[in-house]
Design goal:
This protein is α/β, with parallel strands linked by helices and about 240 residues long. It contains 7 helices and 10 strands. It is globular and about 55 Å long.
């Protein structure tokens, strides 16, 4: 990678509960791209994302984010993190939630309105979050992470449980953000979302299988369907072991 990467991971090792979850991962993520972090449930995707955000204790290796060690205090306003569970208040309205988070990060009411428009919730400002659909609640969580215009946005399974139309709309939003300069790392265990990414990181059992692109993965495996392509990579990896 010629340009300075948004994320640089070297020899990362993470243990949780006495188990080695990430035995040794090294990878770089390009700025201004949408990178998919893909693999089956329980393969270490969330642990890797927590390491990038700086909230995971690591056993070894280094993680640099935007040129700084992960978790550095000066990254707090530059990195947005959306967990699997919506991190907003159900007993507040959409507008009240975002007004609250705007005060926390120190942005203007105008930025709140702009962010609500970005995630397509302009008609829902006065609605209680508890009355929204799962997809709409996910959008409120995304909006809260976007308020301070982060340089890096880390999204853990943001489309889980959503219908295909809502998923497509969210991926459209992700690419619009990337075009504006934001780097996105999006985890998923749904392989049909891989085709919407610029780059792919495929992991299994905590190990990096491939860092590639959708087209390169198709060429390597001879499979147009990315789910079958991932299975071929697994089979090839097992045969080589």
């Amino acid at each position: 990678m010629t340009a300075t990467p948004a994320i640089s991971i070297r020899d990362l090792r993470v243990s949780r509960g006495g188990n080695l979850v990430l035995p040794d991962i090294s990878v770089e993520i390009e700025k201004g791209s949408v990178t998919g972090l893909l693999g089956p449930s329980g393969c270490g995707k969330t642990t890797l994302m927590r390491s990038i955000v700086g909230v995971q204790i690591v056993a070894g290796g280094t993680v640099e984010v935007l040129g700084r060690p992960a978790g550095s205090s000066d990254l707090r306003n530059r990195v947005g993190y959306v967990t699997q569970a919506p991190s907003v208040y159900g007993d507040l309205s959409v507008g009240e939630n975002l007004d609250y988070f705007a005060r926390v990060v120190g942005v203007s009411p105008e930025r709140v309105a702009e962010t609500i428009e970005t995630v397509g919730l302009s008609g829902f400002t006065g609605r209680l979050v508890s009355s929204l659909s799962g997809g709409q609640r996910a959008r409120v969580s995304l909006a809260s992470a976007l308020l301070n215009k982060p340089d890096l946005l880390v999204l853990d399974e943001p489309t889980v449980g959503l219908d295909p139309l809502l998923r497509a709309e969210l991926w459209k939003t992700f690419h619009e953000l990337a075009e504006s300069g934001t780097t996105l790392l999006v985890s998923s265990h749904v392989m049909d979302e891989a085709g919407a990414c610029d780059h792919l990181i495929l992991i299994r059992d905590g190990r990096l299988l491939r860092h590639t692109t959708p087209e390169a993965l198709r060429r390597e495996t001879g499979e147009n369907d990315l789910g079958r392509a991932f299975l071929k990579v697994i089979e090839s990896d097992e045969e080589a072991a």
